[in-house]
Design goal:
This is GTP cyclohydrolase 1 type 2 homolog. Belongs to the GTP cyclohydrolase I type 2/NIF3 family. Keywords: Metal-binding. Homohexamer. It is built from nine helices and eleven strands. The protein is globular. The chain is of the alpha/beta class. It folds into two domains: about 120 residues, NIF3 (NGG1p interacting factor 3)-like (Udp-n-acetylmuramoylalanyl-d-glutamate--2,6- Diaminopimelate Ligase, Chain: A, domain 1); about 120 residues, NIF3 (NGG1p interacting factor 3)-like (Udp-n-acetylmuramoylalanyl-d-glutamate--2,6- Diaminopimelate Ligase, Chain: A, domain 1, 3-Layer(aba) Sandwich), CATH 3.40.1390.30. The longest helix has 23 residues. The structure holds zinc ion.
Length: about 290
């Protein structure tokens, strides 16, 4: 069985920590480098439910995309929710390792996994300088509504679901995708000249301006859902390493939805009197989903 330090060395080769953004906090949060590793769990968020899942699974290593601590702390006391995670992990001999912006910029990385989940053909990076996001082609043109429906069907279900901005009937051939918050990438998306952009955490003003400026279609999925496919990609990568090195690791992907949004209501109410709306792609009957 490999030591934690040997497994981490392989993970660092997949996602070199020096490629993380300067503000980021990647790497090993807790764990004994000499401890043996037999079972590994991948998840997006290092939250208490995931720590508990790692313990119940008998995992020796939890690898998450999001950092537990992004800024410095002076306490890991269990009275604080983050300290509770640290206590749960250490008391049960579970190491925690984070691959965040170094996994975003890796090849293959978070956006490759997102494109793969959607069945898209990647033709190159959206931002070549730091390898962020991906430009993709569809096998055949489809409407923006069908493209969004594809995302809703192929990404794991969340309360948020998938939102669309722009004409749902517009034709989509080339798209940009970026896992996680993508609204800092609008300039690159416009420069790429794609028909649609799929990402997460899009806000009113950038979306309003983007759709006023050009017929770009926008597809906004839950942050967690756009990054979860990376867990499957990462687990497959570690499985392959384990086979190659004869480690016989047991590698798992958490299916727990840790997107913080827990319900979504779409009222059947009509817009304010006299108001009209651009062509609507609403298909939800209004029940929380
Ligand atoms: Zn994220």
């Amino acid at each position: 069985m490999p030591r934690l330090s040997e497994v981490i060395a392989e993970l660092d080769a997949l996602w070199p920590p020096q490629r993380a953004e300067s503000w980021d906090a990647v790497g090993t949060v807790c764990g004994d480098p000499d401890a043996e590793v037999t079972r590994v769990l991948f998840a997006v968020d290092p939250v208490q439910e995931i720590a508990d899942e790692a313990v119940a699974l008998g995992a020796d290593l939890l690898v998450t995309h999001h950092p537990l601590y992004l800024r410095g702390t002076t306490t890991v006391a269990a009275g604080h929710f983050k300290g509770r995670v640290v206590h749960t992990l250490i008391k049960n001999d579970v190491a925690l390792h984070v691959a965040h912006t170094n996994a975003d910029t890796a090849d293959p990385g978070v956006s490759d996994a997102l494109a793969g989940a959607l069945g898209l053909r990647v033709t190159g990076p959206l931002v070549p300088e730091n390898n962020l996001g991906r430009i993709c082609e569809l096998d055949r043109p489809e409407t923006l509504a069908d493209f969004a429906a594809r995302a809703a069907a192929r990404l794991p279900a969340t309360a948020q679901g998938v939102r669309v901005a722009g004409d749902p009937g517009a034709t989509v051939r080339r798209v940009a995708v970026s896992g996680g918050s993508g609204d800092s990438l609008f300039d690159a998306v416009r420069a790429a000249g794609v028909d649609a952009f799929l990402t997460a955490d899009l806000r009113h003003h950038p979306v309003s301006e983007a759709t006023q400026r050009s017929p770009l279609g926008l597809v906004d999925a839950a942050h967690w859902a756009t990054e979860w496919p990376w867990c499957e990609l990462a687990a497959a990568q570690l499985d392959e390493i384990s086979d190659r090195r004869g480690w016989d690791l047991r590698v798992h992907v958490s299916k727990t939805v840790t997107d913080p949004w827990s319900a979504h209501f779409v009222p059947a109410a009509t817009p304010p009197e006299g108001a009209s709306h651009a062509p609507s792609g609403h298909t939800s009957p209004g029940a929380p989903n």
